[in-house]
Amino acid sequence: MNRVTKSLDDGATFEEVVLPHLDAAYRLARWLVRNEDDAEDIVQEASLRAFRYFRTFGGGNGRAWFLRIVRNTCHGEWKPIRTLTDPFDEERHSSAQASNSPETLMLRTDAAARIERAINSLPGRFRELIVLREIEGLSYRELADVMDIPIGTVMSGLSRARDALRGLLGDELKRAILHTSSVEAPEDEGVVA
C-alpha cells in the first residue's frame, strides 16, 4: 500500500496528529449540521484542508487544531450537494432494519431523545460549547483554541449554555409528565366491586 505521509520538523505525521480524531470530528460536524451525510462530507473536506495545511500546524494539541478546522468548515462556505435520489445501498439498509428490531426499539430510552432534542434546540454557539465540552470532553483551553475565543468567554458561555440546556430539559420533562397524565385512563366512577 502506497501511503502519502506528511511530517513536521519534530517528526509528527499527519496520521498521528489528525487521524485519531476523525470520530470526534464526525460527531462535532453531525451536531453542527444535523445531518449524517453532510457531516461525513464535512469531515472529508476538513481532512483535506488539514492535510493541505499540515505544514502550518505548529505542534501542540492536534485534536483542538483539527476540530477547529471542522468547525470552520461547518460555518464557512460549506454548501451540501443534494441529489434528487441517493443510490440504494443494500448493505446499509439491511443493517438498519436489523438494528430497528422491536426488541431494540423497546429498549431505547426516551431520555436520549429528549436530551438530543434539547441540545438541538440550543442556539448555535451554546450547542457547540455543550457538544465540545460535555460530549467530546475538550478542556476549557481546547475550547478556547477551537472556537478562537478567550477562555473567560468559554467559561461564561458554557455556564449560560448549561443553564439553557437545563431549562430546555425541564420543559421536556414537564411536557412528558403532562402527556403521561393525560394518557392514563380515568378512574371508574361509581363502580362497586
Summarize the structure.
This protein has helices at residues 14-17, 22-33, 36-52, 62-75, 90-99, 102-107, 110-121, 124-135, 140-147, 151-183.
Query: How many helices does DSSP assign?
Result: 10
Average pLDDT confidence is 79
CATH superfamily of the largest domain: Winged helix-like DNA-binding domain superfamily/Winged helix DNA-binding domain
What's the gyration radius in Å?
Answer: 22 Å
Structural class category = mainly alpha
Overview of this protein structure:
This protein is mainly α. The chain folds into two domains: 78 residues, Rna Polymerase Sigma Factor, Chain: A (Orthogonal Bundle); 79 residues, Winged helix-like DNA-binding domain superfamily/Winged helix DNA-binding domain (Arc Repressor Mutant, subunit A, Orthogonal Bundle). The longest helix is centred in the C-terminal third of the chain and has 33 residues. About 3% of the residues have low confidence.
What topology emerges from the helices and strands here?
Blueprint: H1 14-17, H2 22-33, H3 36-52, H4 62-75, H5 90-99, H6 102-107, H7 110-121, H8 124-135, H9 140-147, H10 151-183
Helix pairs in contact: 2-3, 2-4, 3-4, 4-9, 7-10, 8-10, 9-10
Descriptive keywords:
elongated, 2 domains, Rna Polymerase Sigma Factor, Chain: A, mainly alpha, 10 helices, Arc Repressor Mutant, subunit A
